[in-house]
């Protein structure tokens, strides 16, 4: 990996290992304040997981479990939402929608900053503007919760929730079709989304780490044991060991890339204001190899689900042949193991990576801020040359980052084509990116808490 780090100029962090790590972990539980925060976080996580198994009103829990047992491979149309809900979506529980409405609302509000100047103004106002944007995100989350819960209940009533007609196999999933029953289910699931949003904010305020991210982490990690157990049951023991080996290798690669960054040195000139001297220090601008995170994977998955959704609502009547375009979509854009689907998925991820990085990192704004405070990059003139240099570095480092995202996202599809273990392959796609990213960020926060009290932490 030395030639890669040399070419990109990246530098990964290191962790304390061996006995030092165990001593650091012991210090966590010997610190009352930190122990209390971790206990509070674990308590909220336990409540979140408990709600994932409580069925919504008028849902036949027995029939739902029968359908789950008969359909181990969930429909690709609901795979992403079911992943982020920890399996609660297909359980039709009170937390069925999970954190997905909040994620969608956050992405929409962030994208609207480019379209609506008022949102960009609020973003630059500081804490007060951020509070207003957060409030808008909450309102949009509730609206999306109403929309998604209505869609979910409609699909469950039609018997197509598991990608097939479940009425004959498992019986009715919803026991009451009256309008008041449907309204109560919509209110319950939307309220569940609001409670999850409150859980996340409580963890952020009184616990450890980012609350929303930790809830997503919990939802995905909760499915790992079940996925590995299903692989061990349905495949050979050799395939199970191969999945574990590939998973460890992928996890090591993801950790390496997620911690890697290109550090652009910045120097600040000395300024004398009154009797005080400001500036004169050296720092750097950290540009991560994967600046977009998991957002491009979510964008690409959602966009590729649209043709399947349109085709599902244009199914022919019994005895009639489906339309030609519906057949083409079912053959090429629904099957994850088809080469055309993989190619489109990869290209969309690469394109969305460049798009998301372009709207979240503005080289001209960074260059103007550096010039305002007397900062400059050694060998580069301040102003426009600095912006052009930052744009050049960003474009150069985003290419391997986008390819890395595309390859990681294709791992479950490759597993499906190779051994038929797509739905049960947990070490790829959005799941492994979120697991590693949230895990590393939480460890960093715990490390900073330890350094405040003991001057030593988990990182070195």
Automatic annotation (TrEMBL):
Keyword Transmembrane helix set for record: yes
PROSITE patterns: SECY_1, SECY_2
SUPFAM superfamilies: Preprotein translocase SecY subunit
InterPro entries the UniProt entry points to: SecY, SecY/SEC61-alpha, SecY_CS, SecY_dom_sf
TM region(s), chain numbering: 38-58, 88-115, 136-158, 178-200, 212-231, 237-257, 289-310, 340-361, 402-419, 425-443
GO biological process: intracellular protein transmembrane transport; protein targeting; protein transport by the Sec complex
Main location, first listed in the record: membrane
Localization annotation: Cell membrane; Membrane
Keyword NADP appears in the UniProt entry: no
Complex formation: Component of the Sec protein translocase complex. Heterotrimer consisting of SecY, SecE and SecG subunits. The heterotrimers can form oligomers, although 1 heterotrimer is thought to be able to translocate proteins. Interacts with the ribosome. Interacts with SecDF, and other proteins may be involved. Interacts with SecA.
HAMAP family: SecY (MF_01465)
Protein name: Protein translocase subunit SecY
Organism: Herbiconiux ginsengi
Annotated gene: secY
């Amino acid at each position: 990996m030395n030639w890669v780090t040399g070419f990109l100029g990246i530098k990964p962090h290191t962790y304390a290992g061996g006995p030092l790590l165990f001593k650091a972990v012991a210090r966590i539980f010997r610190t009352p304040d930190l122990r209390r925060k971790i206990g509070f976080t674990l308590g909220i996580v336990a409540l979140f997981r408990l709600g994932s198994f409580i069925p919504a009103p008028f849902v036949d829990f027995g029939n739902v479990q029968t359908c789950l047992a008969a359909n181990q491979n969930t429909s690709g149309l609901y795979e992403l939402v079911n992943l982020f809900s920890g399996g609660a979506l297909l359980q039709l529980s009170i937390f069925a929608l999970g954190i997905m409405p909040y994620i969608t609302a956050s992405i929409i509000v962030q994208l609207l900053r480019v379209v609506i100047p008022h949102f960009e103004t609020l973003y630059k106002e500081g804490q007060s503007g951020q509070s207003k944007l957060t409030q808008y995100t909450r309102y949009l989350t509730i609206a999306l919760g109403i929309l998604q819960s209505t869609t979910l209940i409609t699909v469950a009533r039609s018997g197509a929730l598991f990608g097939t007609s479940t009425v004959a196999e498992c019986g009715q999933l919803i026991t009451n079709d009256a309008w008041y029953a449907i309204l109560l289910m919509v209110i319950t699931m939307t309220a569940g989304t609001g409670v999850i949003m409150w859980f996340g904010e409580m963890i952020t305020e009184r616990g450890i780490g980012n609350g929303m991210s930790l809830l997503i982490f919990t939802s995905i990690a909760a499915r790992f044991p079940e996925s590995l157990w299903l692989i061990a049951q349905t495949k050979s023991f050799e395939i199970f060991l191969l999945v574990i080996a590939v998973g460890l290798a992928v996890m090591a690669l993801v950790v390496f890339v997620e911690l890697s960054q290109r550090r652009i040195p910045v120097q600040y000139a000395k300024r004398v204001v009154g009797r005080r001297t400001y500036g004169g220090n050296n720092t750097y601008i950290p540009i991560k190899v994967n600046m977009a995170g998991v957002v491009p994977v979510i964008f690409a998955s959602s966009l590729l689900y649209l043709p399947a959704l349109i085709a599902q609502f244009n199914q022919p009547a019994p005895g009639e042949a489906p339309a030609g375009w519906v057949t083409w979509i079912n053959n090429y854009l629904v099957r994850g193991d088809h080469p055309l689907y993989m190619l489109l998925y990869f290209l969309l991820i690469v394109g969305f990576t460049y798009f998301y990085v372009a709207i979240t990192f503005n080289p001209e704004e960074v260059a103007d801020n550096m010039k305002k405070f007397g900062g400059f990059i050694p060998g580069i003139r301040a102003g426009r040359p600095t912006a052009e240099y930052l744009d050049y570095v960003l474009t150069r480092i985003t290419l391997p980052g986008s390819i890395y995202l595309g390859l990681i996202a294709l791992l479950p599809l490759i597993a499906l084509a190779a051994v038929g273990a797509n739905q049960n392959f947990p070490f790829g796609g959005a799941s492994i990116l979120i697991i590693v990213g949230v895990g590393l960020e939480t460890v960093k926060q715990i490390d900073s808490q330890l350094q405040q009290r003991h001057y030593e932490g988990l990182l070195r």
